[in-house]
């Protein structure tokens, strides 16, 4: 196979193998197209289509996590002060993604950025006196940061009725309410984006295969990795030998990394959680809710359970999603095996897994409570957000599987549950993988840039000018450089058609 640039993809001995056809592999393929266009790259996806698991539009909230509305990124301390550092870091990473997408759009990845991104206000909403105090402190902490300079705040029910009429309709007028809003928010169709990235990569000579399940990744004596792949339709196996392997297979990454035998994966485990959402396609309700609204997680609930009501634009149609409602399956992927969880338990991670089982009793109780909820109980939860919601307008859908990272706490050597992502890199940099979930897709570009720096340190300086051409803020902190931030915002909003 020959690309437009004359690159020959060696199907038996590619330079790079990317496992999984999701947003992470697609992003890394796009980055290799910039820094190493002469390298041959092969993508293996086990499913029948690319972006079929967590990257699929219906398997995530599409928020484009930028910490504009997600309250779990701005925790309050015992004195009530809000720590904005995590929110600033995540927003900074999302700006990196937007710059990179803008570069690819200018280069012809898609005729219309609205194929994958559209402007949607992001709102944080709380109730009660304590919630209102928290929101004041959060607003004060974020407003001082240049990345959040456009954030608005109100405690006026009449103003909120204009911002989020569906949420305010029928609400007790005596209830204390507060919210912040950013009109810089977006809705991202990560499934569409993944397919665009990989289609663009295929035009350059990248070989992307579906129905190809990677079963083994073994180190050979010459330093290459032998990747054993099986066709899920015919059962026919084949092997390729690669200089570099990235395992971006979502929940399937953990067992594959365990099979490589690299010591860096020792001690890591995974806890699968499935998400369910109530969805409505009622255009009357959609017209009343042109925003993404995030609330506060219930006491004892994990950060991933933060309730939110999201406007979605998928395949040209608007709908609303409310959730998540937690579910449980031992599968690590929606199309995975019921044995995924038990088979992931190894002698080197048993301590971590048992440690989490002891310390995360609140999470266990929360999951049991969620699983036992009736349809009526789930509807009452929705009515806490949308007081006038009618049960017949909403249907339950199952979203993607998420595998939360379990790792050893270095300070105690006990297991700890980590809500986020973890990049695992082999000692010599020839293999890497990504574990975990949110903010995941939104920060994929920043995560894959970190991978390039850690896996190819001897090439970083030579690649820097190429990366900076695509991502002007690379090597800088937008939160500390207002002029660069203003220029980046202007350029990305114009290119991604988010300014009108």
From TrEMBL:
<dbReference type="GO" id="GO:0008924">
    <property type="term" value="F:L-malate dehydrogenase (quinone) activity"/>
</dbReference>
<keyword id="KW-0560">Oxidoreductase</keyword>
<keyword id="KW-0816">Tricarboxylic acid cycle</keyword>
<dbReference type="InterPro" id="IPR006231">
    <property type="entry name" value="MQO"/>
</dbReference>
<protein>
    <recommendedName>
        <fullName>Probable malate:quinone oxidoreductase</fullName>
        <ecNumber>1.1.5.4</ecNumber>
    </recommendedName>
</protein>
<dbReference type="GO" id="GO:0006099">
    <property type="term" value="P:tricarboxylic acid cycle"/>
</dbReference>
<keyword id="KW-0285">Flavoprotein</keyword>
<dbReference type="GO" id="GO:0047545">
    <property type="term" value="F:(S)-2-hydroxyglutarate dehydrogenase activity"/>
</dbReference>
<keyword id="KW-0274">FAD</keyword>
<dbReference type="InterPro" id="IPR036188">
    <property type="entry name" value="FAD/NAD-bd_sf"/>
</dbReference>
<comment type="similarity">
    <text>Belongs to the MQO family.</text>
</comment>
<dbReference type="Pfam" id="PF06039">
    <property type="entry name" value="Mqo"/>
</dbReference>
<comment type="pathway">
    <text>Carbohydrate metabolism; tricarboxylic acid cycle; oxaloacetate from (S)-malate (quinone route): step 1/1.</text>
</comment>
